[in-house]
Amino acid sequence: MQSDSNPTTTPRRGWVLAALLIAVIVVVAASLFASGDPDGLERVAEDTGFLDAAEGSPFSIIADYVFPGMDGPMATIVAGVIGVAVLFALLWLVGRLLARRRGSGPAPR
Amino acid sequence: MFSLSFLHAPDGFVSVPIMVGMWAVTVVVVAYAVRRTNQRLDDRAVPLLGVMAAFIFAAQMFNFPVVGGTSGHLLGGVLAAVLLGPWAATLVMTAVVAVQALLFQDGGLVVMGANIFNMGIVGTLGGYALYRAIAALLGGEARGRLPAAAVAAWASVVGGALTMTVQLGASGTVPFELALPAMLGVHVLIGIGEALITVAALAFIGVTRADLFRLRDLQAA
Asked: What is the ipTM of this complex?
């Protein structure tokens, strides 16, 4: 293997932070510009008459991406940033648990 | 109160037997995905796993307009699979759909098995297989990555809409022949958005961090 085929051995913290920043920018953009139109399934449910079959959730934490007690785009931004943080942490943890320790397996180092 | 977004079905859309069946299928596939990832995932892929989940969650909040006062958003399964491989990508998609339902009440709880299947499994595994096949036809991933990803991304949305429609029909929620043209008509268009975003994201990675495309090969077979 060529030396340049050694991914993420270069400092990766900066790249991860940049990628998370992009996710947060997408969240902010979504809270400001996302279409409020019904989406594909909702539209079809409306048009073909089964929207009424929808049942509400038995509990509500950050329902509809609106942080409780806040309103406007900020409520959605806070909700979205929480989601970004939770999913990043969750998959980092899952990855840590599942990943092969470097050097312990047959993979190139 | 409920919210619907894209293929995120709320509880009540799918009958109990279908929901139980979809949970069974989903649990088996996710368990297999864990097995295929465990001790095979290269630890250098771990940050990307977290980043993909965060990005896909954020992108799924962004509903873009399609024709006729309807919106859609990215699924992201093909994008994740191209970078992480199909099994790690399945875990990412499963987590996204689960967190959306548990924390944000986006998509029902009992129907979560079906939602994970439609949004996290069909398009991710099927889309990845299609991606590999098309890329091979085009002379390998290096040359065929973007067009192959575009077609696979589009197909992943249409495929998810198709399995959702089958579940709705089999549940007796709506006649299959009534729902099919409506679901396909909308999702054929949403799929174009999926293809555009997937290609843009892969092109961006190709310019900034092309070495990430080799991360998948580091995983032990």
From this structure: 0.93
